[in-house]
Amino acid sequence: MNDIATLHLKRVAIDTYHENVAYLHRDCPLYKAEGFQALSKIEIQQDGRKILAVLNVVDDDCIVAPHELGLSEQAFTHLDLPAGTQVRVNHAEPPHSMEYVRQKLGGTRLSQEKLSEIILDIAGNRYSKTEIAAFIVAVSEAGLDRDEILYLTRAMVQSGQQLDWKENIVVDKHCIGGIPGNRTSMLVVPIVAAFGLLCPKTSSRAITSPAGTADTMEVLANVDLPVDRLDQIVREQRGCLAWGGTAKLAPADDILISVERPLAIDSQAQMVASILSKKRACGSTHLLIDIPAGPKAKVRTLKEAMQLRKLFEYVGDRIGLVTEVVITDGRQPIGRGIGPVLECQDVMAVLQNDPDAPHDLREKSLQLAGRLIEFDADVRGGQGYDIARNILDSGRALAKMNQIIDAQGRQTQTFPLGQLVLDIPAAESGTVVEIDNLILARIARLAGAPMDKGAGVKLVKKLGDQVQAGEPLYRIHAQFPADFEFATRFAQGHCGYRISRNANDLISWMG
User: Fold this and answer.
1) CATH code at 80?
2) pLDDT band at 287 (very low <50, low <70, confident <90, very high)
3) 352 shares a domain with 321
């Protein structure tokens, strides 16, 4: 090997979150000879292994010496060679599929073959985050028709492992999001699993919300489960509540989400493909989709919800997934807590049949669990709710939840509720007639959720409640002074509640 063309591999302990990053010293002979530029892509290869990585140029010998090539944690794991190995470094050719991304930006309709090539390149870490962002913007702004969404979904399913449980009915449910505190999955899964249906619930972490199911379940148990462990738990317990990322199910989706999150983009096409691909890859045969509709939800009107329902059913049917969609009230948060710890408290209160548990969270969970139970051919339509309620009231759901927690591994770390607290008071007396989901979610995120699990918002008043001027509407919890200041300053300028002296002003979600 030419000594200039090869460098010694070094592991750099930096988490670059779903992106391969390489580090070259500015005085590296190869860097000078080849004319590499910062943020360009390079190809690293040795012993038949090859990866592409985005180049960062450094001046500190403590990071990499001139004769070394540093790789981030993600890239080092992906290349899978020992530190010190001599590797060859070359300029990287841009992935051919980027041409299809440019076509989509220009409004061209993409075929199954083109979308499959894009997704395989993304899953293979051949796209930089800048290139992924271009694809996300193309999907969001140029749009995909329903067949393109079907093609994208199929491509995402095929990008990773696919589970087969060898059972005729494997159920799951998913909410499209946009409603803070909507932790129904953590109640539905133990109810359905206690009934006996197989329910391997894998969830994403929050994208633009203050908490996802995986973030909240992590307060109680380990959610990072490899496929073999996931398989064992589901077969033993009939269910799980895990993060889908470590299972490598539709892995392109996790990479796309890692870029969607900071961009705060969650397009309808990407959302449908993301949800259905994950469920199909996880081996589900029957899926219940919850679409909350309301003026401050992701889906604003009943008409829009009906259109989205047709899209879910169209794509689901064509990928072999029996898909049923329910449209629910999305005018306000579900439960009282917004943020992982607060939402976990709500869930456990319902499971423990606490008389002070949030009634709306309990009832919605029972309705959804009942619909899933009715996928069983031996259950007549309308019986599911009563069966679900009996399982919850008898304590069987709580027992099943504890079994799932033990199987996944109880959380050893404690997450205290944020100790910096501020009540946001009502400016006037009257009836709560409108609650802005988006504002309350933003306040909880500014307070530190979901990264700080004890941060968030605890609701005191809900729609239809009477309130006196000066009474608290909700309470902000934060752990760190900067987060607390951001959240409280925003809340004091944007309360998120509308109060009226006329109770008839209460907004309708069916409009």
Assistant:
1) 2.40.40.20
2) very high
3) yes
Check whether residue 271 and residue 312 sit in a common domain: yes
Catalytic residue, from 172, 253, 254, 266: name it.
266
Chosen domain end from 157, 182, 201: 157
Is 266 among the residues known to form the active site? yes
- On average, the pLDDT of the chain sits at 93
Q: Is 280 helix (H, G, I), strand (E, B) or coil?
A: helix
So what's the pLDDT on residue 247? 65
What is the average pLDDT across 211-224? 94
Q: Which domain holds residue 464?
A: 420-505
192-206, 233-247, 256-270: which has the minimum mean pLDDT?
256-270
Encode burial over 431-441: b for 16+ CB neighbours within 10 A, e otherwise.
Answer: bbbbbbbebbb
SS3 57: strand
Count Cα neighbours of 90 within 13 Å in the Cβ-side half-sphere. Answer: 9
What's the pLDDT score for residue 1? 42
Q: What's the rounded Cα separation, in Å, for the pair 35 and 59?
A: 16
Closest-CA residue to 203 (of 143, 152, 257, 166)? 257
Q: Within a domain: residue 480?
A: yes
d(CA 68, CA 177): 45
Q: Please indicate, yes or no, if residue 374 is contained in any of the structural domains.
A: yes
CATH code, 462: 3.90.1170.30
**Rounded distance between C-alpha atoms, residue 91 and residue 61, angstroms:** 23
Helix (H) or strand (E) holding 174: strand 171-175
**pTM, rounded to two decimals:** 0.88
Tell me: pLDDT of 367 over 70. yes
